[in-house]
Amino acid sequence: MTETRTPGFCALCKSRCGAILVTRDGRLVGQEPNPAHPTGKALCVKGKAAPEIVYSPERQLYPLRRTRPKGDPDPGWQRISWDEALDETAAALARIREAHGPEAVVFGLTTPSGTPIADDLRWIERFINAFGSPNTAYGTEICNWHKDHAHAFTFGRGIASPDFEKTDCVVLWGHNPSAAWLDHATAVSAARARGARLVVVDPRRAGFAARADEWLRVRPGADGMLALAIAGEMIANGRYDADFMRDWSNGPLLVRADTNQLLRAGDLAVPPPGAGWGDLVAIGAADGAAIGYAPARGTYAGGAVPLLDAAATLMGTDGAPLACRSAFALYRDLCADYPPERVEREAWVPAEQVRRTARLIFEARPVSYYAWSGLGQHTNATQTDRALALLMALTGSFDAPGGNVEFTRAKGADVSGAAFMSEAQRGKCIELARSPLGPGRNGWVGSDALYDAIIDGRPYPIRAMVGFGRNFIVTHADGARGAKALAGLDFHVQTDVVMSPTATFADIFLPVNTPWEREGLRVGFEGSQRAENLIQLRPAVIDSRGEARSDGRIVFDLAQRLGLGDRFWNGDMDAGLAAVLEPSGVSLETLRSRPEGVSFDGAPRYFRYRDEGFRTPTGRIEVFSSALRDIGQDPLPRFVEPALSPASPLASAFPLVLTSAKVVHYCHGQYRHIPSLRRRMPDPEVSLNPDTAAARGIGAGDWVEIRTANGRVRMRARLDAGLDPRVVSAQYGWWQGSAELGLPAYDPLAEGGANYNSLISDRAADPVSGSTGLRSSLCEIVAVAARPRGEGGQDWGP
Ligand SMILES: Nc1nc2c(c(=O)[nH]1)N[C@H]1C(S)=C(S)[C@@H](COP(=O)(O)OP(=O)(O)OC[C@H]3O[C@@H](n4cnc5c(=O)[nH]c(N)nc54)[C@H](O)[C@@H]3O)O[C@H]1N2
Ligand SMILES: Nc1nc2c(c(=O)[nH]1)N[C@H]1C(S)=C(S)[C@@H](COP(=O)(O)OP(=O)(O)OC[C@H]3O[C@@H](n4cnc5c(=O)[nH]c(N)nc54)[C@H](O)[C@@H]3O)O[C@H]1N2
Ligand code: SF4
Ligand SMILES: [Mo]
Q1: Is the same domain home to 508 and 373?
Q2: Does the N-terminal peptide bond of residue 366 adopt cis geometry, omega within 30 degrees of 0?
Q3: Whose CA is nearest to atom 8 of ligand 1?
Q4: Which residue of 31, 46, 112, 440 has the smallest Cβ count within 10 Å?
Q5: Which residue has the least CA distance to atom 11 on ligand 2?
Q6: What's the total number of domains in the chain?
Q7: Are strands 367-371 and 321-326 parallel, antiparallel or unpaired?
Q8: Is the same domain home to 214 and 275?
Q9: SUPFAM superfamilies per the record (predicted)?
Q10: Position 598 in a domain
């Protein structure tokens, strides 16, 4: 018996925990924590289930071709060779590209935060760019877009990294690292042990909520109001960094009352001294006179100091008075619309707790924070993100040690090939019709927009899909509409490890291997500077099972067949990897001989803005966002209720607010087939307050039906006294059975099944991002006798 122990990392989720990969006689037998690795202190239950994931009988190991019509419950799968599969795929893609342009092909991409696709993302992106499609359905609108991209409306960059090692106050807002990012959880625990304060904003008493100084049990989707209220308390009591806001935000700039636009020097009869026509205007602290601000230079004329909170009436070019107030004054007033008592009534957080939190956040600074799905899956998510960003700006912790900072990542080349696609082609992204500033800027499309394009041909027909894992039917709102769209495609190829419900609609299925069967190059791990300094090439520690291959191999081979080989090093993946590594100065050979990786000595870039300003239109943190105003959105983060809320007419029939969350055992729709995981979490669960249950005659463990205006699903009741009696939280992602345990599969399209997302409509979406109300729906819960439809997997599924 030969045992090998190879340093690597678990690639299954965002945490990418450093691990020792253990094999025996060519078989993977386990993963163990690797404390020497910057993210290697612990592994979760999924990471420990690695051998089961690899050797599961549910895996698909051979390319398949459909032989029966779409929509037929039996696709009539026929095993074919890789050459046949790739030839047919390339021919279909070439045909559609020829007839309708590459934009008629959408790419579906699963998430690198919850699958190991991160190993090969760079190659897939390169392929999309080389092929020329401006449409990628990435799910970013319901995942990371708000924290990573909407945040830039305020800061000119994403949320970046909480500096947990130096912080004195951690804020987790709609982020539960205990289930979703193990390495973050380890870092928060360490900060807590050092004495850092902790604030958790979550409708559930999950993860760190129980250990927090303040756990704010917000009504799902009311976070924007809560953030404004806390900010309002801070401002009203002078507990904010006024100098920072004056010097580094656009708060001092004047806004015209008549147009609700930033005042320009050219609007005035007498422009401020030294100001150019297009310069912006503030009121000087020295003498109360108007002063010019040049956004391009990021300076006030003559180095004058502005007033943050100002009101003035100046003379316009036509001699009429122009009433103006500073952006900060407008923001202060907006916050004042949400006094703690109102928030207690409407956002369900006690007024006293709002006050305490406002005090704590300021007094315990520097504050580092993280927000994720809890804020992103609402139809008001973009403005909520703005409200949170501005609240955090008030602490002055931005880019400060212990705040949210940019660690320096080890150097790797960006090989995504963005330059392959012309600007004109990018402009065809269907998502740009919703918003010129949303995910469409990066070529990412919301599933609602995608379904419109396939089903209704709006704005033009999408005819084919190349799906890399993404399981639309289960993970996006309105599974039935998703199915209708998928059934309407002329051609669909799907790569996956298992036969997902979305894959059952494909014409060609391509089997993907698991991370232990392929190499994975990681340039920089997230979470800390030490992690970002590491470059590691995880070796393939076992052979691929059956004929499964990596997505990388698949796109390299497809590129050859589509005449794009010259952009793919003529099929030589090693040459591609060498290109990635080129700027690092580390060779592929070195990394292959040192699986523990190579570390650099990068340091955090604190206070970068002091040299470079902010990458926003005004060069400052944007209290007032002209960019949003220009696309018809509110330049201030005014709170709007989610599309469905207790204020909606539907609330009389569906009185409970419905939200969802991740569980540690699974990633999204995956791993229900893995015995060690399914045993721990055998049934789909909905959590509700014991009083809410009792009022409906529901006991712990009973099967219940969750009903919304969009559908009905069944789950098992879990009683959770920590929940507000008006809120329920349910699991999503249920479809797969575990044959090994004899536990059922559930038809994701059946009324009375277990697919959470069939409860949600995709007809209302955030106007900028396209996010849907996965976490702010309305429902009623009733007791039922039976499990969800599709029991046993006999009447549904492959
Ligand atoms: N085990 C596991 N880990 C994962 C994943 C997985 O599927 N499983 N997926 C990965 C991916 S792709 C992602 S995006 C991340 C997500 O990581 P997180 O966003 O941290 O995880 P979630 O559980 O989705 O949501 C966080 C919290 O938001 C709360 N929440 C629900 N509604 C609201 C609300 O309206 N307001 C607020 N403030 N909070 C709310 C939930 O109760 C939950 O505790 O996790 C990654 N890691
Ligand atoms: N109600 C509700 N819905 C949600 C969420 C929620 O919190 N609540 N969360 C949302 C979020 S944050 C996200 S990111 C999405 C995720 O949505 P999806 O990306 O659709 O996530 P999964 O269900 O995990 O599907 C991933 C598929 O990829 C396959 N896979 C695994 N490894 C690989 C690989 O290396 N290559 C390929 N090609 N495939 C692979 C898996 O077998 C699985 O079938 O779900 C969203 N949906
Ligand atoms: S948290 Fe679990 S699944 Fe995610 S990388 Fe770590 S061990 Fe793997
Ligand atoms: Mo995600």
Answers
A1: no
A2: yes
A3: 667
A4: 112
A5: 143
A6: 5
A7: unpaired
A8: no
A9: ADC-like, Formate dehydrogenase/DMSO reductase, domains 1-3
A10: no
| Lateral strand order in the sheet of 367-371 | 214-216, 197-201, 169-173, 367-371
**Could you identify the residue written with the tokens 């249920």?**
734
Report which ligand 1 atom has the smallest distance to the Cα of 179: 1
Domain around 192:
145-241+333-405
Same domain, 179 and 202: yes
**Whether residue 81 is found in the same domain as residue 35:** no
Show the tokens assigned to 297.
């230079």
| Token code pair at residue 122 | 């760079």
Given 289, 305, 326, which residue is the final one in a domain? 326
- Counting ligands in written order, which one lies closest to the CA of residue 175? 1
Looking at the CA of 42, name the nearest ligand.
3
Rounded CA-CA distance 197/194 in Å is: 9
Tens of pLDDT, residues 181-191: 999 999 999 99
Task: Give SS3 for 364.
Answer: coil
361: domain CATH number is 3.40.228.10
Locate all alpha helices (DSSP H) within 600-755, ordered by sequence: 609-612, 626-630, 675-680, 690-694
Ligand 2 center–CA 110 separation, angstroms: 5
Q: Which residues line ligand 3 (CB under 6 A)?
A: 10, 12-13, 15-17, 43-44, 46-47, 182
Same domain, 715 and 702: yes
Q: Are 32 and 42 in contact (CB under 8 A)?
A: no
Evaluated on CA atoms 116, 119, 122, 127, the torsion sign reads: negative
Q: Which atom of ligand 2 is nearest to the CA of 117?
A: 35
The pTM (predicted TM-score) of the whole model is 0.98
- Name which residue sits closest to atom 8 of ligand 2, judged by CA: 660
Q: Would you state the structure tokens that stand for residue 135, as one six-digit string?
A: 């449409």
Region 127-131 average pLDDT: 98
Whether 283 maps to a domain, the answer reads: yes
Q: Which atom of ligand 2 is nearest to the CA of 372?
A: 12
Domain's final residue, options 375, 405, 435: 405
CATH number for position 7: 3.30.200.210
Q: How far is the CA of 475 from the centre of ligand 2 (A)?
A: 7
Ligand nearest to the CA of 372: 1
Q: Is the CB of 544 under 6 A from ligand 2?
A: no
Q: Which atom of ligand 1 is nearest to the CA of 143?
A: 14
Nearest CA to ligand 1 atom 44: 176
Give the DSSP letter string of 492-539.
EEEEESS--TTGGG-SEEEEB--GGGS-EEEE--SSSHHHHTEEEEE-
Q: With bands split at pLDDT 50, 70 and 90, how would you rate the model's confidence at 504?
A: very high
Instruction: Supply the residue whose CA is at minimum distance from atom 38 of ligand 1.
Output: 174
The pLDDT > 70 percentage for the chain reads 99
Dihedral of CA 342/348/353/354: which sign?
Answer: negative
Same domain, 129 and 13: no
Other CB atoms within a 10 A radius of the CB of residue 3 amount to: 9
Out of 466, 471, 736, mutate this one to test ligand 2's pocket (max ligand atoms within 8 Å of CB): namely: 471
- Whether residue 258 sits in one domain with residue 208: no
Contact 365, 628 (CB under 8 A): no
Q: Is residue 536 within 6 Å of ligand 2 at its C-beta?
A: no
Q: Nearest residue CA, atom 29 of ligand 2? A: 469
Q: Which residue, by CA, sits nearest to atom 14 of ligand 1?
A: 143
Considering the domain architecture, whether residues 224 and 105 belong to the same structural domain is answered as no
Residue of 475, 670, 760 to test ligand 2 pocket, by largest number of atoms within 8 Å of CB: 475
The reply to whether 14 falls in a domain is yes
Token match 């895996």: residue? 59
- pLDDT tens-place string over residues 386-424: 999 999 999 999 999 999 999 999 999 999 999 999 999
Q: Which ligand is nearest the CA of 43, by number?
A: 3
Asked if 293 contacts 300 with a C-beta cutoff of 8 angstroms, the reply is yes
Ligand 1 lined by 13 (C-beta under 6 Å) = yes
Atom of ligand 1 nearest to the CA of 662: 23
Average pLDDT, the chain: 97
Calculate mean pLDDT across residues 324-345: 98
